[in-house]
Amino acid sequence: MESHQEPLVANITNLYEKISMLVDLSPSNHVNTLFTKLVLTCLSPSDIDITKLSERVQEMRSRLIKVCGEAEGILEGHFSTFIGSHANPLDHISIFPYYSNYLKLTHLEFSMLQKECTTLPNQVAFIGSGPLPLTSIILATKHLISTSFHNYDIDPSANAKASQLVSSDPDLSKRMFFHTADVMNVSSGLKEYEVIFLAALVGMHKEEKAHVIRHLAEYMAPGAFLLLRSAQGARAFLYPVIDPCDLQGFEVLSVFHPTDEVINSVIIARKYPRPILSWNQEVDSTTLPSKCSDMPCFNPLNHGNIIEELAIDEQLL
Questions:
Q1: Residue 17: CB atoms within 10 Å
Q2: Which residues, 6+ apart, have CB-to-CB distance to 33 below 8 Å?
Q3: 132-135 contacts: CB < 8 A, separation 24 or more?
Q4: Which CATH class is domain 99-316?
Q5: What is the similarity comment for this entry (predicted)?
Q6: What does the pLDDT look like over 198-255, one tens digit per residue?
């Protein structure tokens, strides 16, 4: 490990040791301060390559991602309960501390999807939606205002809290659905969705994530889009990393690595074979290999770097 990366890893390790000693991850001044420091540390500019870290640091990173996932779930559950206690919950959704980050991330994901898909989808699935399905809510209210959203989570209590948020809304209560299920047990139903979002914390380890992706590749509709959240650099201490080359069965269309306060990288891919360019335009179904080599970067949304993995549809945009 290069010397200039050692202070960063030391700071993250120090914060992990303090966080690992917490008896309760529920929101409090102390808990909030520690996780805020961790996030700010991981957002600092860094070209760190997590694959080259020592085994000890790799093990620490895995444990840190797990505890961050637990804390995130508790935080979302806490605020979902509080927001859901109001007469009109969606009027108070912005009190969630990271709401503005979700606005930016969701806008980014919608912009990437819009670039590839010329017709708005009728049905979208979000896998791992949790108790506070902000991505689905923001997309449904600001971007995909006539689309139906099917939210999948393995935890029935998470779905109960999430459902409470939209049950009183005359529009979303008709377009937002919640399914308590392990996605690995959902097969033919996945073919109903033109777009599927995979939450960052579905599959905490590389092998688990790959297992879920293989399942989606088997059962998603041909030509359907898959949006995944990954991480790069020091942000990979907060979330699992997806290598685009691991998306077997999918054509990787673009990869975006933010450089602002948005933590997650975004990958958009399309399931092979490719019978359509848009939802209603027939084309040659010859499959194309995924392209994992680096391409020139540019900055279309003022968030960071986007790598165009395949630019075969540029003439349609």
A1: 10
A2: none
A3: 132/76, 132/77, 132/79, 132/80, 132/83, 132/96, 132/161, 132/162, 132/165, 133/162, 133/165, 133/176, 134/93, 134/96, 134/99, 134/102, 134/106, 135/102, 135/105, 135/106, 135/109, 135/197
A4: alpha beta
A5: Belongs to the nicotianamine synthase (NAS)-like family.
A6: 999 998 888 899 999 999 999 999 999 999 999 999 999 999 999 888 899 999 999 9
